[in-house]
Amino acid sequence: MVEGMTDQAHEAEGALPGKPTAASRTTLSHIMTGSETNLYGTVHGGVIMKLADDAAGAVAGRHSEGPAVTASMDEMVFLEPVRVGDLVHVKAQVNWTGRTSMEVGVRVVAERWNESTPATHVGTAYLVFAAIDESGTPRPVPPVVPETDEDRRRFQEAQIRRTHRLARRRAIRDLREQRPGA
Ligand SMILES: CC(C)(COP(=O)(O)OP(=O)(O)OC[C@H]1O[C@@H](n2cnc3c(N)ncnc32)[C@H](O)[C@@H]1OP(=O)(O)O)[C@@H](O)C(=O)NCCC(=O)NCCS
Fold first, then answer.
1. Which whole number is the average pLDDT over 96-112?
2. How many domains, the chain?
3. Ligand 1 site: residues with CB under 6 angstroms?
4. pLDDT tens by residue, 127-171
5. What pTM does this model have?
6. In which domain, by residue range, is 55 found?
7. Domain CATH code at residue 67
8. Ligand 1 pocket check: which of 1, 2, 70, 155 to mutate, most ligand atoms within 8 Å of Cβ?
9. How far apart are CA 6 and CA 26, in angstroms?
10. For residue 64, how many C-alpha atoms fall within 13 Å in the half-sphere facing its CB?
11. Residue 1 falls within a domain, yes or no?
């Protein structure tokens, strides 16, 4: 179970060799069209979330060298609206790895498709993917090897999010056990 696992598990004997962050880093680009808008005429947040999940899934699959499924998505922050005609770039990389899971960080930037103006940072998301085998059982992933100061900062911040996710799950589980049937 999640609660019983230690984050040092991937350092155990027989662990897979590490892979650098850059080996799976990916950018997915897409021009926004009129079919992707909300009632206010800007791009629907769910469309951006789908792109984030797609890019993160590609990164998780590349890093783990096989199937990987979205276990959770948190902290999807929208900073600026995305408009029709924006060329959106969804940049994704593995921030952190556990034994069978990976946190993938996604940074979304947008620029006008036909202008050479600076791109705007429109959103950020953090997703957890679990690598699975043919039967859907979680399988070990290679530990990610952060190479730059930025990668190391992201690794440390991802560890903080991981700690909070596990603590939140544990606290909710404990509360429900104290209040059976509530
Ligand atoms: C994700 C899934 C494989 C986890 O299976 P499980 O039996 O709970 O397995 P575990 O408890 O061993 O968890 C596996 C890993 O995922 C992590 N994990 C599981 N649920 C998580 C969650 N909600 N948030 C963050 N991490 C999670 C665990 O911490 C563990 O990581 P670790 O090995 O690095 O420590 C399973 O719940 C699943 O298949 N979910 C559906 C995924 C899916 O279909 N996604 C697409 C949505 S349509």
1. 97
2. 1
3. 1-2, 5, 69-72, 98-101, 128, 130, 132, 136, 138, 165
4. 999 999 999 999 999 999 999 999 999 999 999 999 999 999 999
5. 0.91
6. 8-178
7. 3.10.129.10
8. 2
9. 29
10. 30
11. no
